[in-house]
């Protein structure tokens, strides 16, 4: 694993948990974690359960005892690490967004296509059981033709103008702000659940607070504000309209300025035969409206997605004993290990990540061009 | 009153109820109702409580015993009736949208400005107590500077492609579809609650079902489908981005294709100091997040807006004995009668209605121009 | 109508509304209202829409132009008025609880049985559309055999110890406190929706605040506190266990001390094949769990009970345009007028009211006897 | 650890997780797990992460390298194992209910008092962050004097009469049914959050389905039904009234027959100054009504208990990234290890467990005695 901050902790938990709850065809061995600060990476290794450390990711990537490289660093480093790892014959799991530009993402896809190893991008929310169930219901035709997608990712962690700068607010490192960090998730979820692509967008990006205190330390998403200030170089919020490949309309909204909404990933889909609604604030629940039922007893069904019949659940606890945020990472580890064992392409692939990247690029282009309708570049 | 269908029934209920629950400075006398079909209008008068009938609205408007003309007809007739009534010295209450075009709306505003009578447009949802409370909280600075407006009006009454044609699906009569019928409401609500204007938009309009059965009779919103079909000439759904005059971002979505959402008017506003959320499916409730509270005990407060301290409530029932859809019409009647008695301009005025009309026009223009950013025309 | 306070206002609204929205076989004529204070009853008549007044209910009851007597007075007067009215050949609608004692209630039932007129007791919440739908689903076997009834009626209007005395806190007038005022409703609802009887109870009654300020005026449920204090002679809260005649268990809780719960009538029923849940705070909604559905997609369905297919709704507004508290009174008026026109016994009958009264009596007896199991007296 | 079924898996996860997320004063070493079936316990050890196995718990308890014995077996074995372990100088964590009888529980308390080791009982739900916050708010006087406790634990896992027998339905092993298994939790939660004791009860126990298929295998809570049947010797549901030591009233309901409710632990508390509400179906949320706020803006606050300021949360994920069922077990491990390191008595102690046991005993006594009021035995 490269990187060991918030995402690194989540991934480590997944690697530790997966074999405890699931019957895996291969047992993950947490061989090494890489980070630039020797003392810090050593402490992280102990805490997170890695057997050894490297201070240079290149050393890690070239080790013979490494089969899979798990990339948990900021987006500006994804392409180089992933491509090097793939060229070294490793399997790769790369956090989202796949890269900070379409060009980098394309290079990563080419590297993945040329490589012996398998490559996967970490759109983890796909593996929340309620989202998996949503996908199944759509694929089974239970909501018919998709008419509307309504996707929001609402947070409030920098709604306070005194919240300090972090790498996530620095365009060089993060590529973009709310758009790439959280907007990428709802684009991927909209596409995954509908099984369709976003074909074009009309967008606005906005930075409400353009100057912020410099964080005196890097601990945590929030950090601690110091006396100095520096510029915010990414968007605070992204809103955009879109069209789905099946003819439906979509609205997207990603913001870090929605006071009171902590991690509200909301997805609502209306089809010709029914509707689905999900909110990560109630992550073990999926709401399903079946329009084929008689009007007198039709209603959104609040499905508590914790039955053994539901995706991934049989491995965990009895019904009603809900899962939390981190469990989707465990499911991701399980699915990746299984795909590797079966020599299958895991999903979402780097190509899937590129598709999202192209939507983000179209959003940026539209936002820079008077919100004009901007088609999403197709795979060449 | 001119017209006596769904809206006419709601307005009649309001005129009957207002003096029963509120101390009015003047007592409304339900003098006459007009409609083209003599027998039908006579039956409506008996049922709805009007003392006499006219088969020509011009006759009604010219009667000396009429002080106030209440217009409940389709939008294509609003301008002519309202202007004639104002020129005849009557007060006017006109259903929304104010007109089917900006030009008509401008003419109505000019007529209102020139007239002795007072003119009001029926954006009734403003008078839901929870919405009034929302406006008060924003005006009192409780959520700070508005960052985000998230407005949706979701219905499903023609999600079924076999739902028949009605005048609401005919561009000649209705002017537009979901946009003018329900989109107008959320534009007005967004502007009313924030106290700001929508300054520009980027939009998509869509008609999912372009041919529908002809209704064999005109009873009810749903009607009954016949064998013949005819074209749908209005939009089924409208989605648009906007900017508020205070710098915030807005998303709007109006659709009649959201299965399971019956009359879901949702308004969520995030400011620099807090947030508000409302859903008409739970119309007696307002959710308020106060970001000035300590994080450990902050949360969206579910305010049940049925206390005697709340707007309009003291006239009705004890706390918790909720109001329904029709009560907002009674509040509208109360406020209009009071304004007339006090020789004050009632709100929303025709000018307020024109502002909404200009937003709708900008939406249509943007939708026809590749979703390009389209400023809303300012008052000249 | 006798009495014209809170209940009188609600009943008057119903008599006015019923013929406006429903096709009634007979048209109610609001002939006269009775009250002891001549000026006050005259003002009430004007406000509420009654054609004449009486200062002695006996005069009203003996008038030839009166066919139906609607009793909206405190419980201590119900028996005398109702019996006199029935003996005078009138139809009677009597507010709940039927009486302040089983003996009175029995006398009322005997009078009703002997009379030509028809008698009905005002358990109005039965006529909330969602409750009617609940009854239909149970009667149709959709939840199977009833295992559990969970009934709560939670208010907070005297949670503040400074809330003043009112007749509702006076045993002489009210008979009991939370038990008879609101507990009676949930007993009736539990029996009505299940179609079963409560066969025995184990109970606790409690008065948390035994001395309160004397109200300086009688306006409103809350009144206004004065300097003097007086004793509270009724229960503030009643909690009891029960058994249903079909073998299920029941819990009941009625309190006026649940801060934040304004009029939360909650009914949850678990059967062998499904469950139902209702909360009056969201009165247009019924939740239904159908256990015959596959586990993977089973969930409580949130049925918005505003479709034309739902009880009473076709007469009102389009789907999603919810009803309020008062509408159930209109439904009650409609059903009573219809029963009278068809010479049928309206429900709930006085006998149904007596059944509830006997449950309340058993509750009081058990509470006075160490909560010991106390069978509900059967009809003799 | 003794036992390795559902509870054993949850405890193992906790022991593994605690040092990964929390800074512990001592590092747990998962030395050995005991079970009767050598092959099965060996497989469990590998899967759950234990270094060695024993087929006799007595061997485990006497090992020198064991400092803490974690008891995850059915209730009939708790007393013997715990007492033996304490006498052997070990610390003990014992799953709830503490024992199958008051006598056993008393012996365990005596053993704990006499021992050098520390003893704790596993009422894990106390350590859900929202419950901790509830306790803090009550202790800080934020809801004033407790008037009402409304506690429910609703499940549906044997609502189907074909659900097979398991040890949980066998009085010999489980002691009681819903009462001890889930009722014990809500009694403990009610006492913990209020800081008060249940002083007496009036109760009903019921077994709806008295004969069930014999499970053909023991995997999972549900098992798989075979052809034979056997008797259910415990209660399916327990409902009881109670009084709190501060004068408030309480209602309790524990059932496995509430279709659609999977693990709905609901706790609602009304005090003289406010209210609290919790439902485990939405476990990261606490609802708080503060009656000291102005009526116009008062409402239940939906506190999403995932802020770093909230109990336990800083060790986990950013705000809004909710926890799941298993996390409370990790918190339990953290608190126990910390108490041991600091030579402090951990809570809940065996004495706390005995208090719950006495409430359960009073419930059984009252249920057997016509629901008569039965005081809970005080500590002697």
From TrEMBL, chains A, B, C, D:
InterPro entries: Gfo/Idh/MocA-like_OxRdtase_N (IPR000683), Gfo/Idh/MocA_oxidrdct_glycsds (IPR050463), GFO_IDH_MocA-like_dom (IPR055170), NAD(P)-bd_dom_sf (IPR036291). Keywords: NAD, Oxidoreductase. Pfam families: GFO_IDH_MocA, GFO_IDH_MocA_C3. Gene3D superfamilies: Dihydrodipicolinate Reductase, domain 2, NAD(P)-binding Rossmann-like Domain. Residues 1-123 form the Gfo/Idh/MocA-like oxidoreductase N-terminal domain. Residues 132-276 form the GFO/IDH/MocA-like oxidoreductase domain. This is Gfo/Idh/MocA family oxidoreductase. It comes from Cellulomonas fengjieae. The lineage of its organism: Bacteria, Bacillati, Actinomycetota, Actinomycetes, Micrococcales.
